[in-house]
Amino acid sequence: MLNPECMRIVIIGSGNIAHFFTPRLQENGHEIIQIFSPNPENAKLLAEANNIKHYTDDLGAITQDADAYILAVKDDALKALNEKLRFENKLVIHCAGAVALDIIADISRKTAVIWTLYSIRKNNLPASNHIPLIVEANSDEALQGAEILANAISDRVLTTSFEQRQLLHLNAVLVNNFTNHLLAIAEKLSGEHQLPFDILKPIIEQTFSQIQKVSPSESQTGPAIRKDEVTMQKHLALLREHEAWQQIYKDISTSIQQTIKK
Amino acid sequence: MLNPECMRIVIIGSGNIAHFFTPRLQENGHEIIQIFSPNPENAKLLAEANNIKHYTDDLGAITQDADAYILAVKDDALKALNEKLRFENKLVIHCAGAVALDIIADISRKTAVIWTLYSIRKNNLPASNHIPLIVEANSDEALQGAEILANAISDRVLTTSFEQRQLLHLNAVLVNNFTNHLLAIAEKLSGEHQLPFDILKPIIEQTFSQIQKVSPSESQTGPAIRKDEVTMQKHLALLREHEAWQQIYKDISTSIQQTIKK
Question: InterPro entries recorded for this chain (chains A, B) (predicted)?
Answer without folding.
Answer: 6-PGluconate_DH-like_C_sf, DUF2520, NAD(P)-bd_dom_sf, P5C_Rdtase_cat_N, TM1727-like_C_sf
